[in-house]
């Protein structure tokens, strides 16, 4: 990903401090500024080609929190089902397509 995590441990391997930094800023906060709040989820979901729903959910949750909207139970259940489904999909895509190649010798397939 686009994060850097630094952990300081003592001689007993106990974490004394941890820092998370990111050098990536995509400016979506600026893009959605002064736009119809109903568009926020659709705009921010395009931040990532793999985990689109996570960003969509973050966008609509931010709008709901800002406006004090409590979604109905059916919406919560539907969102939960979508999140679980895409969690499975996204992790499979990430591991086998984006990350898995780091763990195998793909050039060995050329020897077949």
Describe the structure.
With 112 residues, the chain is an alpha+beta fold. 47% of the residues lie in helices and 13% in strands. Strands 1-2 form a two-stranded antiparallel sheet. Its cofactor is Fe cation; Ni(2+). One of its GO terms (cellular component) is cell envelope. Ni(2+) binds at residues 48, 51. Mg(2+) binds at residue 29.
The N- to C-terminal Cα distance equals 33 Å
Biggest β-sheet strands, sense, barrel: 2 strands, antiparallel
- Unreliable stretches covering 5 or more consecutive residues: none
**Which value, in Å, is the CA radius of gyration?**
19 Å
Topology, number of strands: 2
Category by helix and strand content:
alpha+beta
Q: What proportion of the residues is helical, as a percent range?
A: 40-55%
Bulk shape: extended
Strand content: 5-15%
Mean pLDDT metric: 88
Q: What is the number of helical segments per DSSP (H or I, 4+ residues)? A: 4
Order of helices and strands: EEHHHH
What topology, given as strand order, has the largest sheet?
1-2
């Amino acid at each position: 990903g686009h994060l850097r995590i630094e952990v300081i441990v003592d001689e007993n391997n106990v974490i004394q401090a941890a820092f998370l930094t990111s050098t990536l800023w995509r400016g979506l906060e600026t893009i959605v500024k002064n736009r119809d709040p109903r568009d926020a989820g659709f705009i921010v979901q395009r931040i990532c080609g793999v985990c689109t729903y996570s960003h969509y959910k973050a966008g609509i949750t931010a709008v709901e929190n800002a406006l004090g909207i409590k979604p109905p139970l059916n919406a919560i259940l539907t969102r939960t089902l979508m999140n679980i489904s895409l969690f499975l999909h996204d992790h499979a895509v990430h591991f086998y397509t984006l990350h898995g190649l780091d763990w195998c010798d793909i050039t060995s397939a050329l020897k077949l």
